[in-house]
Write a structure and sequence with these properties.
Elements: H1 26-61, H2 65-93, H3 95-115, H4 121-133, H5 136-139, H6 141-155, H7 159-163, H8 165-173, H9 175-194, H10 196-217, H11 222-235, H12 239-248, H13 258-261, H14 265-290, H15 292-300, H16 304-332, H17 334-353, H18 360-375, H19 377-388, H20 394-403, H21 405-423, H22 425-443, H23 450-453
Helix pairs in contact: 1-3, 1-6, 1-8, 1-9, 1-10, 2-3, 2-4, 2-20, 2-21, 3-6, 3-10, 6-8, 6-19, 6-20, 8-16, 8-19, 9-10, 9-16, 11-12, 14-18, 14-20, 14-21, 14-22, 15-16, 15-22, 16-17, 16-18, 16-19, 17-18, 17-19, 17-22, 19-20, 21-22
Length: 463
Amino acid sequence: MSIQEPAVDLTQPRPDEKRRFPVFSKRNTSTATVLALLAWTVAVFDYGLFGTLLPAMQQEFGWSAPEAYAINTWIAVGTAIVCFGIGPVIDRLGRRKGMMTTIGGTAVVSGLTALIPTGIPFLSNALLVVIRSFGGLGFSEQAVNATYMNEVYQVTEVADKRKRPGFHYSFIQGGWPLGFLLASALALAFLPSLGWRALYLMATIPAAIIVWTIAKKLKETPQFELHHKLTELEKHGKSEDAHALAHAYGVEHSSAAPLKRIWEPHLRRNTIVFSIAWIVNFFGITIFSVLGSSVLKNAKGVELSDAFWMLIVINMLAYFGYVFHGWLGDKIGRKRTIIGGWILSGISFAIMLSPIATSPVMIIITYGAGLFFLVGPYAAIQYFMAECYPVSCRATGTAFIGAMSQPGTILGGAIFTAIAAGSGTGTAALWVGAAGTLLSGLLMFAAKPPAEALMEDHPHDVA
């Protein structure tokens, strides 16, 4: 069967007929898992390149430090706008085409970034902000992955992936540190000889190859095929037929727009809780993940060369944080895993910033633990969010919440800068980064579990 052929029986059911979704074969499941990992890693590669190459770009574009910060802020604003808009598009296009859109957008953005001219101050800066804002397509790739793999693992014939979906998904979400390590390694190897533009061209090639492979090899989920059919029936005024077909598969059907659905009474609380938690958690991501070398240098007196190697070790450890939290989420529940991880992260960073941590070994242990428990729970929360929204608005919900990372980055960076100016980097990192991370964990106590969020009278709506 070709990937374009429907896997679901979309004919009108007989009264009270019950149907089941067809299974995803082992081969299709493996293909989906590998392509999702590669797509996310390459998307993060492009996303991470901007931060890695910013000093070199600043020199060529002739920015002062405040100008570079302002441009980075405007890019964050544009990224948020793109992220907010992509979710409903994915819920309309489908998971397969959604992945092609996000990773294809990454390929285009990487290529265009390499071609931006210098020496035309306003135009050059405006082009950079607009083009890099569409890097939000690549950042949203994780929302597509969470949506797609959630549906694949529900219907796969691979029993272990059905029983331990969070553990298997964690390897995919681990593409975040892999993408950043790839950006750092290639920049270290090629920036001095080839320049920053060549690195963006390098990012374009694998992204384009992955888009082609997705078009040829990736199969749409049966859940979305059903959702698409229900939408088509509604468009043609066949609402009763749509509800009958949905009932046959045991799912809830709604004709409401995806962006409206995530604010319906039974979904609203999670939308609000997840959004606020992401905002304050990205205070910690901004300070300890993005500005890690500055924190180590200015707060703990670590030399930059030593800080660089420390962060390589710390980020390698962080990858296993994804795997651990994915595994733990299957064992004790994703909500508990997220709460515990982020609270422990806040405590670990607070210890690292205290006078107790003086030796390099102690700094690496406490910083490594902080990052392990900070980024690792994202393997659990991405899957948890996908579980909490029905098919009709699943991508919209996960993408909308993921977009809250950008307000978190802007707000967290501004507060951190203000406090650091008056009280020093250590104090700012403690009260913004460590406290924000701790608060995000506490906020997650208010999140509803998936069954409650989706209403227990529609137990199959997650499918």
